[in-house]
Structure formats: structure tokens, C-alpha cells
Amino acid sequence: MSACEETYTYFAALRPTEIRQSGCVLLSLNGSCEINSFTERLIISATRIIAVDGGWSHLKNLGCRPDLLVGDLDSLPEEASADPLLNDVACQLYDRDKDETDTELALNLAVREGADMIVLLGAMSAERPDHTLATLYLALDKAGEGVRTLLTDGRSVLIPMVGPDRCRVDLTDFQASLADTDRDLYISLLPLTREVCGVTTENLRWSLTDSCLARKEARGISNEPVPGNNFFTISFATGNLLVCLTSEN
What we know:
Number of helices: 5
CATH topology: Rossmann fold
Shape: globular
Largest sheet: 9 strands, mixed
Number of domains: 1
Mean pLDDT: 90
Strand order of the largest sheet: 5-4-3-2-6-7-8-14-10
Radius of gyration: 18 Å
Helix content: 10-25%
Order of helices and strands: EEHEHEEHEHEEEHEEEEE
Oligomer: single chain
Number of strands: 14
């Protein structure tokens, strides 16, 4: 398996002796972010929280003090300098004229520090789809190096995976964030390579068994969890796969 020999569980419930998920780093980026019980849970479970430039604003809305501020600060609001949540917060500042994005710098830092799971909060932006795609490619690269990654805006989750791999996705917290809305949950499996083969799923309405998903087809779009189950599993042998959790009215 590329990232883990055993089945990895995304959004696993913390053990009674755990306050946070060991090895989990959260990067708060400057894209879109819906504040809800799901994003609050992601914040609570992270062992280290890094504000990436203007991504500080999401942490402010969540009342969360970051452990580190990273970036060239070109998107950080002026009022941030007076915010008590940033008092005495360590900074790693970079020049605006550089080859890397702030997200890339923060991702590399988290990996160097030993993260085995990186949550990219605020990673999606309708105004800057180029940033969204670049961040997805960066996260996929880290997944290939054995570091679990996911992108989210609070309403959707993107999980890039590199085969061979298998995982279990616990839906409890994500579904709870939809409880007071009229949105439905959809699960899509999108090949990032020409084919993803050996795909087997459990607890999805339209199940797959040792199947191949082709990038030229949209076969994996808009699946649903089996009613009464709060998780699903997926495994595959070859290729790169994007697992998408989305909610829609």
C-alpha cells in the first residue's frame, strides 16, 4: 500500500485517551470555508495548526489560535496584526517573488516536521480554480510519498489516493454537519490517471468489485452511502484516485 499497509480511517473517532489525532497537521488556506460542526471537529483533532497567509481568517472565525503563520502575507488583512489570536504566534515569512506558493511551502514544512496526515482547510476557491488544482496536485504528490492528505471547504472533501491503497471513511461528523440542512451527501470516485483498476467498495449504493474506472468515463459520479451506515470503504490496486464527498440541496 502506498500510504499505509493497514486500512486507514479518515475522520476516525478519537480514542477516550486521545485529545487530538496524533500526527495530524491542519493548514488553513485562503480559499472558501464553511464554518460548521465538521470544520470545528477538524480543528479540534489537529495536533498542529498552521495559518497560511490569509487562511488566518478562517481560524479567527473558529476562535482558534494557530501555532504558526506561514507565507508572504499578501492576502493577510491589515486588522490581523492587531488580533490577539496572533499575539506571539511564530512566523515564517517569505518574499512575494518566489517559485513556490505559500501552500506548497507550508505542505513541505508539515512533511519535514513528521506529519502523517495533512488537512487543507479552505483549499477550494471558485475565484482561483488554478490555486485549487495546484493544491490538489501538491496533495496528490504528498499522498504518493506516504502522507495522507485531504482538501475541504467544509461542504465538500477531496481525498487524493495513490494505488495500491485502501481506506475507510467515517461519515459520522460530515453527516452531522448536514443534519440541520436540506443537503444530501454524494460520494464520487474520480480517476486521476487513465485507469484505476481493482476498485472494490463497501457500503455504497452502487457497489464495485474488482472494477476498473476509466478517466474518459464518468461512471464513478454521484454514488451514495447505504442508508443506516456511517462509513464506506474503498480499495484499489493501480492508478491514482480522487474520492469526493459533496453535499448539495
